[in-house]
Amino acid sequence: MPELPEVETTRRGIAPHVEGREITEVIVRQSRLRVPVPEDLIDRLVGARIGSLGRRAKYLLIPVEGGGTLLWHLGMSGSLRIARVGELPKKHDHVDLVLDDGAVLRYHDPRRFGFVDWLAGDAEHDARLAKLGPEPLSEAFDGERLYELSRRRRMAVKPFLMDNAVVVGVGNIYAAEALFLAGIDPRRAAGRISRERYDRLAAAVSEVLAAAITQGGTTLRDFVSGTGEPGYFAQRLNVYGRDGEPCRRCGAELRLVTLGQRASVFCGECQT
Ligand code: ZN
Q1: At which of 130, 153, 187 does a domain end?
Q2: Tens of pLDDT along 151-174?
Q3: Helix or strand run (H / E) with residue 43
Q4: CB of 78 within 8 A of CB of 3?
Q5: Is 218 a domain residue?
Q6: Which residues surround the ion ligand 1 when the cut-off is CB under 5 Å?
Q7: Does the structure show a pLDDT above 70 at 1?
Q8: Residue 188's pLDDT band (cuts 50, 70, 90)
């Protein structure tokens, strides 16, 4: 599933090809995505020029000059890449934005849990965006915030960290990895973790996400490759998906628990 680093890598990968370009044609082959493609999308977009791409949590924001923004979510299996006019669509290539230089922004999504929607007003007032917590790589996110929001909360720290109202974009992989780096047991009650440990956890979250984005940067050329999908990157993971394997730090067998209905792997020795 595309997580925040993949969405940010997508933004950086497609931005140079679409910013400042005029949309000359919109092709919708399948409108039944998680949110149906708005019926007036073609009227709104044809002739419009694309502004500077943004991202909020896992939403890609594509503003057009003159007002309005496309809100794009990649769902479970979505990807955006740059094709050329005349390049035949593959199965599951649902939406094309054809640009004035012959490039095509092409959306591919086998499971169709992603969507593209149109925001007429200011994007930050959209209900989906307004309630989100701060970005994990912004100054608004730190150990103090985690500490303050967690007081008297009995839920386990891992689902607390994955709550979008606390901080956005920390999915299962990066929550597990950050808790390992910070040495915190994912089962520990959020309200019983010290300020000092939350400082370490906030730093670990930033570290794992920044590393993934940096690594993603090496795959940017894949956004314009003629075949396949953008290469999402397999980071060297310490715990996620490694239950039963030895801890890279101490050698103990990594354990699996379920927290907030999500599988969570951790080291019982290194994480307390
Ligand atoms: Zn260990």
Answers
A1: 130
A2: 999 999 999 999 999 999 999 989
A3: helix 41-45
A4: no
A5: yes
A6: 247, 249-250, 252, 267, 269-270
A7: yes
A8: very high
